[in-house]
Design brief:
Elements (H helix, E strand, L loop, with lengths): L10 H28 L3 H19 L3 H18 L4 H17 L6 H6 L12 H4 L15
Helix pairs in contact: 1-2, 1-4, 2-3, 3-4
Length: about 140
């Protein structure tokens, strides 16, 4: 799964990705809830349900490439159905495409599950030292015995 992400940036780039995910997720959930309150037909309800699910995935930063692709698909559906303003659909589609390519950033569930791991091996003890047998290293060339 790590190969789906180019990086998990920290600092300001990571904060910017978090902001993109939060804004996109909140907008998708808001649009989905508004559609449920208006009592739309079945196909619009399905698209709005997918929008709420994709928005939730974006906010959590879980399966971000999949969520970004879903956002792009939902934005195209919004555009053709006319359920949201055209510029809102274009903005959500661009945001979904960007998050699909860039990844979630360091503040996400994806980064915790699939991010780069750091291993510290300073405290490692050689197996011979664990059993009590300590061998002296061979002398280096030029060293007097």
């Amino acid at each position: 799964m790590q190969r789906l992400f180019s990086m998990f940036p920290n600092g300001l780039p990571g904060a910017a990705l978090l902001l993109l995910r939060l804004v996109g997720g909140i907008l998708l959930i808001y649009d989905g809830v508004i559609a449920f309150r208006t009592g739309s037909d079945l196909s619009t309800t399905i698209v709005q349900s997918v929008a709420i699910g994709a928005g939730t995935l974006l906010i959590l930063g879980f399966l971000t490439p999949l969520a970004g692709a879903l956002v792009l698909i939902v934005a195209v559906c919004f555009m053709f159905r006319g359920t949201t303003p055209l510029r809102s659909s274009i903005l959500l589609g661009a945001l979904g495409a960007a998050l699909t390519v860039l990844g979630p950033g360091v503040r996400s569930i994806d980064a915790r599950r699939y991010g780069r791991k750091r291993f510290d091996i300073r405290g490692r003890v050689a197996p011979a030292q664990q059993s009590g047998v300590v061998s002296n290293p061979p002398p280096s060339p030029g060293q007097k015995l």
